[in-house]
Design brief:
The chain is α+β, with helices and mostly antiparallel strands and 107 residues long. It has a single domain (13-106), classed as Beta Barrel (OB fold (Dihydrolipoamide Acetyltransferase, E2P)). It has helices at residues 41-48, 90-106, and strands at residues 16-22, 25-30, 34-37, 53-55, 60-63, 67-72, 76-80, 85-88. It has a five-stranded antiparallel beta sheet with strand order 3-2-1-5-4. It has a three-stranded antiparallel beta sheet with strand order 6-7-8. Strand 4 and strand 5 (60-63) form a beta hairpin. It is globular, with a radius of gyration of 14 Å. The N and C termini lie far apart (28 Å).
């Protein structure tokens, strides 16, 4: 992936916890660092979907492997391995449920 400062740094997919929209770029949150990249969220969503990444709201994509829990309260909350809590909006809930089912069956 190409960073904002025009250096190329390879980030292992399994180390990515989530990707957050930041205007016309994104911030990739990994286990050890944050990386800003010159990609829009919709581009990364398409490229990473087959690897277990799922969009959960307008601003975030999460790595299925880093979901610790899905809490059904007033809102649906995804708790990630870095203990971040993110709201799953209704428009994206069905996709999240389908992905979990798909990866649970294939695992």
């Amino acid at each position: 992936m190409k960073n904002i400062n025009n250096t190329v740094e390879l980030v292992p997919l399994d180390s990515i916890i989530m990707i957050q929209s930041n205007g016309k770029s994104c911030i990739i949150h990994t286990i050890t660092a944050k990386h800003q990249v010159n990609y829009q969220l919709c581009q990364l969503e398409e490229d990473l979907e087959e690897f277990g990444f799922i969009r959960i709201n307008k601003f975030n994509i999460v790595n299925y492997r880093h979901i610790l829990a899905i809490l059904h309260t007033e809102d649906v909350i995804v708790k990630l391995s870095d203990y971040t809590d993110l709201v799953v909006t209704p428009n994206y809930l069905r996709n999240l449920e389908n992905l979990i089912l798909e990866f649970s069956i294939s695992a």
